Amino acid sequence: MTDHGWWIYLVIIVAGWLATDIWRWLGVLVGNRLDEESEALHLVRAVATALVMAVTSKLVFFPTGTLADSPLWLRLGALGVGFAAFLLTGQRVIVCVVVSISLLIAGLAFL
């Protein structure tokens, strides 16, 4: 970092904070007023779930990087077993993620 250029990093940090934190606080303020059973909130949950599943599908069927070197059967198997673990543990997302990633790592280590 040079003596004259430090302010650029400060501007990036402040701009990044402002761009995201304002929306978080607005979400908290507006979210507190929403009824959890409202149609609007059901729509938001459905869209969020669809986006997560779209990204997951892209990673499984059109992977990049190291994941692209793994066979499709390994990716599908990890996804299936992770989903089964998700359902068996009372729909805990962290269990699904840990099981799926562990299977992928183990599968890649033995290939």
UniProtKB/TrEMBL annotation:
<feature type="transmembrane region" description="Helical">
    <location>
        <begin position="93"/>
        <end position="110"/>
    </location>
</feature>
<keyword id="KW-0812">Transmembrane</keyword>
<feature type="transmembrane region" description="Helical">
    <location>
        <begin position="72"/>
        <end position="88"/>
    </location>
</feature>
<feature type="transmembrane region" description="Helical">
    <location>
        <begin position="6"/>
        <end position="30"/>
    </location>
</feature>
<feature type="transmembrane region" description="Helical">
    <location>
        <begin position="42"/>
        <end position="60"/>
    </location>
</feature>
<protein>
    <submittedName>
        <fullName>AzlD domain-containing protein</fullName>
    </submittedName>
</protein>
<dbReference type="InterPro" id="IPR008407">
    <property type="entry name" value="Brnchd-chn_aa_trnsp_AzlD"/>
</dbReference>
<keyword id="KW-0472">Membrane</keyword>
<keyword id="KW-1133">Transmembrane helix</keyword>
<dbReference type="Pfam" id="PF05437">
    <property type="entry name" value="AzlD"/>
</dbReference>
